[in-house]
User: Fold these one by one.
Assistant:
Number 1:
Amino acid sequence: MTSKIAFSRRAAIALGGALMLATAPAMAQETVKVGLILPMTGPFASTGRQIEAAAKLYIAEKGATVAGKKIELIVKDDTGTPDVTRRIAQELLVNDKVSFLAGFGLTPLAFAVAPLATQSKTPMIVMAAATSSITEQSPFILRTSFTLPQVTIGIADWAAKNGIKKAMTLVSDYGPGIDAEKAFKDRLTAAGGEVTGEVRIPLRNPDFAPFLQRVSDTKPDALFVFVPSGVGSQFMKQFVERGLDKSGVRLIATGDVTDDDIVDSMGDVALGTITSHHYSAAHDSAENKAFVAAFTKAANVRPNFMAVGGWDGMHLIYEALKKTNGATDGTALVEAMKGMKWVSPRGPISIDAKTRDIVQNVYVRKIEKVDGKLYNVEFSTFEAVPDPVKAGK
Ligand code: DHB
């Protein structure tokens, strides 16, 4: 008996030693890694720059420690190419053992990584991409950006109420453009209007000229446009070169076309353009004034809607870790994020517990001069708008 107990004691001591060895690497893991994959070069680099600056600002303002864990942000450039995004995500999961995947500057980049999030049970925070169906690609996806149907219905309603009977549509030929085209047409048609022509333009190296000639010949009441962030300047230049700004055809768009990164450089020709979107740097709230001031100081440019997606994505990560007391189990983190509500620089937002998509205000805005610079000035609000595609399911 005695010797058995003595043996057990020795065993317990040995086991204790083994446990200490086992916990040694765990202690070293007091860091929680966030893999932030963004287009930092190439035609969509402004998206990457905006989100990176916002994520870094969030960490600088809130501190790099949350729930006892040190947050380490690992930023990787995917150049906007889906194969590269997938490879980087794989490396971040296997080599760096990240607890979160985040970023995703374009829809195809989010689609490329969704299966990896599912297999590895890793929360994937979509901070930019905006095709409605993205959140359905994995139960580990949550979104802090927006969806195109969500922001398009605001401008369609405005058009219907402001005498626009016949409209043409021009969208980039991929997920978000197709979502925007359908949402605009459905909503305008339901209100008694008509879409008389629909054109899809390639995402890469778009040439708007042939289509703008058609618009000029047809003279609809309005032209509705979606192009992704950063491309709006090229569109506006060609719109003006064709004389369409003086043709009586009203230019209406989602706020992607007039994003804060580029709107001031569009010049006075852009004045009066009506758009709807979820964020403007001119949004009138204390939270936004503080955000714009801090961001502009840190990054030397105005924040656009991509920045606010990055900022709120970091908020979601921080708050989820607080709820799990720093535990990094992917399923527990996703559960912690569901239903979360907070006040963003864009206004009040929440994560729908069922769809894991964002619910937020959508604002109708007009380009005006504020202190000599062009801004999207909000003048009406649709409150707490879900993604209408999923709400209708
Ligand atoms: C997407 C990208 C953008 O830059 C944008 O403004 C809207 C949508 C996308 O690829 O999902």
Note: Residues 149 and 389 are 7 Å apart (CA to CA).
Number 2:
Amino acid sequence: MFPDYVVGDLFSKLQGIFPAAEPILALYWQERNGFRVLTRGGERWVPLGEAGAEGWVLKLLSSIIVKDWRKERETLPVSYSLHGTPGAWMATPLVGKEGPLGVLSLSSPLPGAFDEHHLRLLESFASNLTLSLENVLLSERLQKQRRGFELVRKINLQMASASDLKSLIKVALDGLVRLFGASAGWIDLLEQGAMGSPEGVEWARGFLAKALDKGAAVIAEELGSGSPFSSVLSLPLKKGFKKFGAMALAFSTPHYFDEIELYLAEVLAEQIALAVENFALIGEKEQRIRALSLLNDLSKTISLSLNLDEIEITARNFLSRTFPVKAGALYLESAGEMKQVARWGEEPKLVDFISPGIIEERLESYSPFEITGPYGMPTFVAPIQLGNKSMGFILLIGYKLSEEEQLFLSSACSILAGAFHRAYLSREMENRLAEMVTLHAISEQVMLSLELPVVLETIVEIIKHVMDCRAACIFLLNEETGLLEIRASSGITSRWRTEAKLRVGEGISGKVVALGQPIYVPDTLLEPDFIFFDRSVRSILVVPLKVRGKVIGTLSVDHTIPNAFTSDDERFLSIVAVQAAIAIENATLYERIKEKAEALKKAYDEVSELSRFKSELLQNVSHELRSPLTFIKGYVELLKEKSMGPLTPEQEEALEIVSEKTDIMTRLVEEMIVMQKLEREKLKLEPVSLEEIAHLSVRSATFMAQSAGIEFKIEIPPGLPPVMGDKSRLIQVFDNLINNAIKFSPNGGTITVRLKDMGEYIQAEVEDTGIGIPEDKLDKIFERFYQVDSSSKRQFGGMGLGLAIVKSIVEAHGGKVWARSKLGKGSTFYFVIPKA
Ligand code: ADP
């Protein structure tokens, strides 16, 4: 029922606005109490009771946002949505004029992906969607109605040419069954008995009798398996209070009758009753043949046209040729009033003696009736009725109609009623289509751009073009000044665009804002306090622009002639105003989101600039320190070896300290350089043995460990597979961890190096029995320059880069590093590296 391209289009627009989110459109089907669920992957059917959170939104009829499904799970009345249990979820109902149409929902795997701004954006998207959804549904309904009437007309025509009652009933039955796609049908006339499908006739009698008895429709949509058919519709055949019998239609599968079907069935039942009555009453065969062929001709000529004017002419010709009256007239209803559309006869002015008001009160009846005419002339009125609706009437003055002629006239009226109805429908449909095309164009255009000025200009351009007016204009309320200002216009001289400013309550636009209602001034010259910006404006139509009930401005069209606009124009402009307000709201939201994004980007740029500056500084400093250090180290060694002369014991001791500290400083500079390298250079990954690397590191630290009174233990299971790694970097990881373990075990102890096979990973552990790390510092130690004790009096050397280096190497390998520790008892460092 909803064209695929509209859905595709909708989804891609949603994706443009919410890039990482998944959309679902759940269309509500009232008769089946469930959702037709449309996703990007296809569609499925879900009963309302199983629809989870979307069902809940439909019941509440308000938007809902769940920012983090997992966290909020406990507080939600439903445990899942049509998206399953996503990270974040939001949904908004689509509420049409006649009730809920469905739910539009979005999900994201990321908790926190949506906020209230997003929800509002989704809401305005949904109101836009609701509008097009309603248009599609409406035009579908009109089309169905039109097809139905086409068939009704055909059946009528065939009934009119039937030669006896039996064939009339047969034609009617065939038509009924075909029109509704039914499996069987029956017509039961009071004096004739039931006719129709032999199968199930006994069963059907019950329904026929009930409908006849009630005088109204009897419907069963889903019957149990005991019945020969699954659903049935039975209607009385009656004209006014007079009953002729009943008809019934049965379906072998459950059938849900919609409004249009019921309406068509009722119209047809009326027509059958009418035809049956005509048959019974018109006795004379010849007369009948003449009358029928006349009606047939009328029906044929009229069926060729969908144009109201043409139908009026045909009707007028037919009536004036058939009845030799003094004066005749055709009246049709228009905007709640009966208006004369044609008159004929020798003295057509005679019709002016009769006021349509008096006749209107009596139009309930189907059959022609007599009224008092001018100068006592015999005068007849024939109502043109469809269903229970009066469409108009025919007035015939100065000729006494026989009973047969009255019947004949009422048949003609029913043919005319059908023809007028079809013409109205077709006109309405054309108008609707034109509106839809415009609305579609507007929403297409405004969706193309989210920049407010472009959106506004596009709207006024399209409106001016479509409504063919002098100018179209959008005023928006400036929140700071409280004044209405022209924000977009087409057809207005540029001077007014900047000069025209109105207070709320002032001028037509100001009044519209104050009242929140449309105002139409059909003639500006007759309006005493009209404020003219331009003298040439003679009529003006202004509608409010509302966002969530609040008036934000006006949309207006004007013209240089008086009475330029109709109530249709007003309705149309109001619909456009809804769209425009949504577009304006969207653009404003978009602007706000854009501003936010720009501010974020600026902050991000600043941060990256700072961090770039920091690493450049580090790089320069470390390289500048490296060469002087080499000199210092060289000369200290020379002095120590006494190559530059003898030394006193104090000097020797001092030199020893200088040499030690120089070593420490050299290591620090090296660490800094390594850190930098890590940032710049890529890893060279190949399958390597962690076991071999662990042994290498332990071996190179053995001397240092021994002098600190520390013993090494190695626990490695045999046959460990290789990992995917950069050997020199991994050596550095072990070196740093082992060096720390030695450094922070001042009282000697044991260092255990372990490797374990963990499936996809190899896990390495370096355990010591040293001073330990406080629980709350375990995460911090991996940050650059972080030290548990950073005071100047601290006992251990270093600058807090070792673990940062470890972390960045391990993570570059796709691994993880962490630590556990007990203060005073020792620490264990763990890391994992993926297997080759
Ligand atoms: P550095 O050792 O140069 O200070 P690291 O990044 O290697 O820097 O370590 C950061 C901090 O983590 C150390 O200053 C120390 O406080 C703590 N730490 C690291 N390893 C151990 C360990 N095995 N036992 C106790 N504390 C440790």
Note: Residues 567-640 form the longest helix (74 residues).
